[in-house]
Amino acid sequence: MAQQIGYSKKVMEHFMNPRNVGVIENADGYGKVGNPVCGDLMEIYIKVKDEKIDDIKFKTFGCGSAIATSSMVTEMAKGKDLDEAMKITRQDVADELEGLPPQKMHCSNLAADALHEAIKDYQSRKEGAGIK
Ligand code: FES
């Protein structure tokens, strides 16, 4: 019968019950990245308090792995210092999910990148450099 294509239980669990889905009104930082390979899109919103990620939400228009990685990255980043959250890599996210099938590794790029974009957005707003 249908063969499993190598998704870990954790990937399936986050895909079925994604954490922190939604939008934060008046977010302090916002990141949006698209995946040029498949055209999928991810958005991350953060609220920052004392230079820590106080709240984080995501919206992903993408495949199951993209949803699972976004869910995981929000869990990993919540409560972290901005510097630490900035250091979360796509590999960390994939490891935390107990691996992704090799053909799906590119999907994890979105989550870490969107998080980093949201932090950079917050920092540039703070410095006033974000005023265009
Ligand atoms: Fe597009 Fe996974 S196939 S992010």
Write the layout of secondary structure elements.
Blueprint: H1 9-16, E1 29-34, E2 41-49, E3 52-61, H2 64-77, H3 82-86, H4 90-96, H5 107-126
Antiparallel strand pairs: 1-2, 2-3
Helix pairs in contact: 1-2, 2-5, 4-5
Bound molecules: FE2/S2 (inorganic) cluster (FES).
Summarize, please.
The chain has five helices and three strands, in the order H-E-E-E-H-H-H-H.
Could you characterize the architecture of this molecule?
The chain has 132 residues and is an alpha+beta fold. It has a single domain (2-126), classed as Sufe protein. Chain: A (Alpha-Beta Complex), CATH 3.90.1010.10. It contains 5 helices and 3 strands, in the order αβββαααα. The chain has helices at residues 9-16, 64-77, 82-86, 90-96, 107-126; strands spanning 29-34, 41-49, 52-61. The chain has a 3-stranded antiparallel sheet. β1 (29-34) and β2 form a beta hairpin. α4 (90-96) crosses α5. It starts with 8 loop residues before the first helix and ends in a 6-residue tail after the last helix. The mean pLDDT is 91. The chain binds FE2/S2 (inorganic) cluster. FE2/S2 (inorganic) cluster binds at residues 35, 38, 40, 62-63, 65-66, 107, 110.
